Amino acid sequence: MRGCGVNGPERFEAHDGDDGSDGADGENGREGEHGSEGKGNTRDEGGLRDGYGLQGEGDPRDEDGLRDEGGETGRCDTPAPGGPPRIPMPRASVEDSGLPLPAPADLGVRPPPPAPPVLEHPVLKALLGAWALAACSAEEATAVEEHLGDCGSCADEARRLREAVGLLQRPESLDLDPGLRTRVLDTCLERRPPRIPVPDWAAAYDAETARLDALLQDFGDAEWHAPVRLRWFRADAATSRRTTVAGVIAHLLSVDGLVAVALGLDDPLGDVPSRKPTPAARTEALWRASHFPPTRFVRAPWREQSHSLVRTVSFTGGGAGRMPVPYGDFELPLHDAMLDRAFECWVHAEDIAEAVDYPYDPPSPRHLHRMIDLAARMLPTALAHRRRAGLASPAHHRHLVAAGEPGRSLRLEIEGSGGGEWLIPLDSPAAKGSAEHEVAHVALDGVEFCRLAAGHVPPQEAAAGQVGDRDAIRDVLFAAASLSRM
Questions:
Q1: Does the pLDDT of residue 212 top 80, yes or no?
Q2: 325 DSSP β-pair partners
Q3: Could you give the C-alpha distances from 51 to 20, 56, 353, 374, in angstroms and in order?
Q4: Under 8 Å CB-to-CB from 405, ≥6 apart: which residues?
Q5: Per-residue CA distances from 122 to 126, 146, 154 (Å)
Q6: What SS3 state is found at 313?
Q7: What element of type H or E holds 116?
Q8: What is the C-alpha separation between 28 and 16, in angstroms, rounded?
Q9: 249-279 CB burial, b ≥16 within 10 A, e <16
Q10: pLDDT tens digits for 125-181?
Q11: Which of 21, 294, 296, 402 supports an S-S bond with 246, CB 3.0-4.6 Å?
Q12: How is residue 416 annotated by DSSP?
């Protein structure tokens, strides 16, 4: 159509139904061009009205006073089929039209909140408990809060209720208290004592393996292959070994196997040969024997072995606690070996938790005290080994005494949960710690001391309060770090 500017094969041309003239001159041409009622048919071949469908003669402008692109007037309401869409004309602003503005609700504007309900004083006072618990509706809460600004007695009551709710809903970590398991077991055992109780010196190992197993139970493949760096001290130098979370569990499996072999249980290494019967050599042998890096499947044999150890030492009774457990270079009685395994389980559990960025709490105070006591009792022997290796203070500081006699001592004060005081003989493992011969005093936090004994804190950086003989203090701190191993 001309008025709509349609071009191409679908263009509709106006024509005269009588003689087919081109409508260039005269009345017929005018009528054919504008489609007015006069001579000729004003419909095209498709039965549509040409131009803009104007009827009659007169003013060539349409209702809006718009003129078509051919110089004539008209308005195209419907574009031709297959043609480009019509571009709308500019519109005037509603503010300039003089028409009333639309209501805010029509524009999507949220109406102002309704006024709070008017409630009587007894009703508002009865709502204070629900308000303190955040159990009121929005309207009731607004009414109560406006009332509290005018009523002093209700405001005091609301404050007391809010404080009580705060005590009931203390913000706590989602992780369980490490002492919860011990308290629950103690309560259960008080009501129904076991026929075969777990010895006190094996309870720490039982608790720490259970805590580590709870940490591992939701690990995916990414967590099992997360890198972990094992750290310890060797000859006053920090040493480390890179492995994975699964590699750490394999390490615990192999070293716990030393206790299993001493109790007559199966060795987790099986037929795998180990260069030496030491914890490090056994671990390296197990790692080398694996065709692939350890994966989540190492958890099941480790957990089964830990259950077997606890069950076996329980059946042996308290009298088997002094049975020796060889560690290759040294040996420990069974009750100390179980504490040693509990200590290492906790330390490596912290290594794993750090690798996966997860919080992990220290052991319960009762178990932590036993672990600190074991390290304190091993310090005199560690000092003697360092002295023979030439790593301790010069010989002129020593004061040799007979076995069992009091000698120079250092007071080791452990603060915090699981703490206490120990007198460490400095000159001989066979000497007796004595307060009368005290030459130095060291104070350390319990967890800090355990991390020092695990080789995770350098002796120079241990946050210790120190008074007295500096050489004796240095010897004890470095001896504590030398207790660490892979």
A1: yes
A2: 332
A3: 17, 13, 82, 106
A4: 431, 432
A5: 6, 15, 10
A6: helix
A7: none
A8: 8
A9: bbbbbbbbbbbbbbbebeebbeeeebeeebb
A10: 888 888 888 888 888 888 888 888 888 889 889 888 888 887 775 555 555 666 777
A11: 294
A12: S
Per DSSP bridges, beta strands 420-425 and 432-445 are: unpaired
Q: How many residues does the chain have?
A: 486
Q: How far is CA 223 from CA 216, 219, 246, 354, in A?
A: 9, 6, 9, 11
CA nearest to 441, candidates 413, 460, 463, 419: 413
Q: What is the pLDDT of residues 73-132, one digit of tens each?
A: 444 455 555 655 666 666 656 566 666 766 665 555 566 666 667 788 888 888 888 888
Tell me the longest C-alpha to C-alpha distance in the chain: 145
* Residue 229 and residue 241 in contact, taking contact as beta carbons nearer than 8 Å: yes
Torsion of CA 133, 137, 142, 145, to 10 degrees: -20
Q: E strands, 190-343, where? A: 227-234, 237-244, 324-326, 331-333
Contacts of 169 (CB under 8 A, 6+ apart): none
Tokens 């500017």 sit at which residue? 5
